């Protein structure tokens, strides 16, 4: 799987739709992106730890496991997808699925497969 998606909505519309707080002026995001790829900073909606309100923030797409010492140690480790059947037992996913959730505003996603005989 190629793990890419499309976001056509601008940050102001997303903040309005989800009733979010956030410093939109400091978020250098294009109004839309038709090829969002893993490890890039993208808009997410999460619950603020201080106020409990929804907030719109930029976050790196892909999980950096809590046991990671530095980002170089996760290179080559695919942490953009989790299997539903092992999400609660996997060392990488079991803690985040309990405590760290967010909404990712997406309009479409790509599902790429290698075609037999293709590149």
What does this structure look like?
With 119 residues, this protein is α+β, with helices and mostly antiparallel strands. The chain has one domain: Alpha-Beta Complex (hypothetical protein yedk fold). Helices cover 11% and strands 21% of the residues. It is built from two helices and five strands. It has a three-stranded antiparallel sheet, with no helix packed on it. It is globular and about 40 Å long. 9% of the residues are buried.
Task: Draw up the topology in text.
Layout: E1 4-7, H1 11-17, E2 33-36, E3 41-47, E4 54-60, H2 94-99, E5 108-110
Antiparallel strand pairs: 1-2, 1-5, 3-4
Strand order of the largest sheet: 2-1-5
Q: How much helix is in the residues?
A: 10-25%
Report the strand count: 5
Which structural category fits the helices and strands? alpha+beta
CATH topology: hypothetical protein yedk fold
Quick description:
The chain has 119 residues and is of the alpha+beta class. The chain is 11% helix and 21% strand.
Features:
119 residues, alpha+beta, hypothetical protein yedk fold, 2 helices, 5 strands, 11% helix
